[in-house]
Amino acid sequence: MRYKHFKNADVSVSALAVGTWAIGGQNYGQVDRSDSVRAIRTMIDQGVNLVDTAPCYGNGASEKIVGEALRGIPRDQILISTKFGLITDVYSGEYIKHASYKSVMREVESSLMNLETDYIDFYYVHWPDVNTPIDETMAALNTLKKQGKIRFIGVSNFSEEQILAAEEYANIDVQQPPYSMVNQKFTGLMKWGYERGIDSMTYGSLGSGILAGAIRTMPDFKPGDMRLTFYDFFREPVFSKIMEFLKTMDRIAEGHGVPVAQVALNWSTQKEFVGTALCGVRNEQEAAQNCKAFEWKLAEDEIAALDQELVRLNIGF
């Protein structure tokens, strides 16, 4: 496993991290709880030291699975990242962005209980809440730091302007934007943050699974599946473009004797402004294969070939 040193947080983090959106079991395909626990433990056995989750991933289900997976592992060997501020409305079922002081204090206690821990390493504002003053949200986070319930403050899906506004009231240690070969829209934000010591944990690192190479024909996802509603990778014309791009990935993967997912992970994590790539896994086999990506690296000419093809097909920009 390769590691990167996060500047503001002053901790070393594995270049690959466990992403747990899918294992919440809500609108993300079939998930087996036992397989998920074993997958997380497999990644930790391979040197991964960060697990990222959120209470809204299955209404607490993901956090509880993470808590179960981490039982018996010395707490100081694992970095736990979770979030707050995205709450499911009990009447409509829709998500509400709510990051008031009172709500933060309520959510953190729930997450601590679900995760079976006394503290959270990275605590993120999941999405900006335009109805709550940012100084109120940051005051809650500063209080939690003083109480020892969180170690580092993070923001997810924030713009430069929103990060600067938050920095007036608290030190921002990390950010979490989407980033992969097929989604490079926030490259500038990540580079800007990196120069300020705000390292990035990227989500969607395998393009919601499309860069794993297993899907080669348009899938028949159920209505409401997050892979259809949150991303455009599984809709035309983007889907066909990515299928064409996979031919270049196939050629490079074949040259190294590896699955194409490892090409995608190296392309991302070999960039200095990518702190760690969050990667969802459903079983031990996927976990082990993804970790093996860090036993080799892409050559500069291979990265150039991939970048040229992305530009030619106009994917991800």
Automatic annotation (TrEMBL):
<feature type="domain" description="NADP-dependent oxidoreductase">
    <location>
        <begin position="16"/>
        <end position="308"/>
    </location>
</feature>
<dbReference type="Pfam" id="PF00248">
    <property type="entry name" value="Aldo_ket_red"/>
</dbReference>
<dbReference type="InterPro" id="IPR050523">
    <property type="entry name" value="AKR_Detox_Biosynth"/>
</dbReference>
<protein>
    <submittedName>
        <fullName>Aryl-alcohol dehydrogenase-like predicted oxidoreductase</fullName>
    </submittedName>
</protein>
<dbReference type="InterPro" id="IPR023210">
    <property type="entry name" value="NADP_OxRdtase_dom"/>
</dbReference>
<dbReference type="InterPro" id="IPR036812">
    <property type="entry name" value="NAD(P)_OxRdtase_dom_sf"/>
</dbReference>
<dbReference type="InterPro" id="IPR018170">
    <property type="entry name" value="Aldo/ket_reductase_CS"/>
</dbReference>
<keyword id="KW-0560">Oxidoreductase</keyword>
<dbReference type="GO" id="GO:0016491">
    <property type="term" value="F:oxidoreductase activity"/>
</dbReference>
<dbReference type="GO" id="GO:0005829">
    <property type="term" value="C:cytosol"/>
</dbReference>
